[in-house]
UniProtKB/TrEMBL annotation:
This is cyclic-guanylate-specific phosphodiesterase. It comes from the Bacteria. Residues 24-278 form the EAL domain.
Length: 292
């Protein structure tokens, strides 16, 4: 009986693997169709300066509206696209679209923001990454200072010498550089000092229970203190509640991104959001002025 159960377990295991494998084959084919038929979209999530309430920038996040599967999360296809190499055409599309939309915001009179784009490991490690990126940037007419690249610790640690050199070139071109998901990658702090980055983004897994878990609180306070001492900007990701925001701001965090402030949204909605936000801010300033 036990033997039989064992057999069944193995059978089911193999069955599941077979399903997984065929799913990934069909997902791979679907990704190709999405590339060819333009099924991807970029949404933009605002980033805010806490003390002033000003919107300082946006993170571009890819969205895939699949004709049958519906919405597919980037968590479920970016990894696969990395392993098949499909991430390269996807990334080119992301960069082109983000540059074009940033230019559209420029055309509306906005020029004091950064457009943050996630850079995947494979994309970063390509030989012509820098020259291709700079060529696309120049073609778009977007000021290099408005572009921020988000890289994860893992990517930067993998080939440290190359990373330091590459980031140095990008920095000298005027781009902003941020370390994404900071705190999850075991990167050594001594290494961080050699990286010419301008910002660290505290991973949202530390923000989640920040208010109730003293260990998460300790990590977050440590990252903020270190970033400030190293004159880096520090942004908290995934801030969902006022309590989290209040805690972070008491501990000198300055930049925020999360559902508490705004969700990722298409460009058309972003424009409306910015307009309303700007108006609300003006009203607050006027009111404060009236009170003093
Ligand atoms: P990430 O770069 O760390 O992006 C932040 C993720 O947190 C986004 O998930 C965003 O929607 C989500 N988020 C923001 N605020 C909150 C919050 O308050 N609560 C919660 N629960 N989540 C929040 P998303 O859009 O699903 O993207 C997941 C990951 O996929 C990204 O993590 C990034 O690693 C990758 N990704 C997304 N777009 C791109 C892209 O264009 N290129 C590449 N290479 N990777 C991308
Ligand atoms: Mg990111
Ligand atoms: Mg992140
Ligand atoms: Mg992430």
């Amino acid at each position: 009986r036990a033997k039989r159960q064992g057999h069944n377990t193995i059978y089911w295991y193999r069955h599941e693997l077979a399903i997984k494998a065929s799913e990934s084959v069909s997902l791979r084919r679907d990704i190709q169709q999405a590339i060819d038929n333009g099924q991807f979209e970029l949404h933009y999530q605002p980033q805010l300066h806490g003390p002033s309430g000003r919107v300082t920038g946006f993170e571009a996040l890819i969205r895939w509206q699949h004709p049958e599967r519906g919405f597919v999360s980037p968590v479920d296809f970016i990894g696969l696209a990395e392993s098949t190499g499909q991430i390269i055409p996807i990334s080119d599309w992301v960069l082109e679209t983000a540059f074009r939309d940033a230019r559209e915001l420029n055309a509306l009179g906005m020029s004091d923001f950064t457009m943050a784009v996630n850079i995947s490991p494979m994309q970063f490690q390509r030989t012509h990454f820098v020259s291709d990126l700079l060529r696309m940037l120049e073609k778009s007419g977007l000021a290099p200072e408005l572009l921020e690249l988000e890289l994860t610790e893992g990517v930067l640690m993998e080939n440290a010498a190359w990373a330091v050199e590459t980031l140095g070139v990008l920095r000298r071109e005027g781009l902003q550089l941020a370390i994404d998901d900071f705190g999850t990658g075991f990167s050594s702090l001594s290494y961080l000092k050699h990286l010419p980055v301008s910002k660290v983004k505290i991973d949202r897994t530390f923000i989640n229970d920040l208010v109730s878990d003293h260990r998460d609180a300790a990590i977050v306070k440590g990252i903020i203190a270190m970033a400030r001492a190293m004159k880096l900007q520090v942004l908290a990701e995934g801030v969902e509640t006022h309590a989290q925001y209040a805690y972070l701001s008491r501990h000198q965090c300055t930049l925020y991104q999360g559902f508490h402030f705004a969700r990722p949204m298409p460009l058309a909605r972003l424009k409306v959001f910015l307009d309303e936000h700007h108006r609300a801010q003006k009203a607050t300033v006027a009111q404060a002025g009236g009170n003093t």
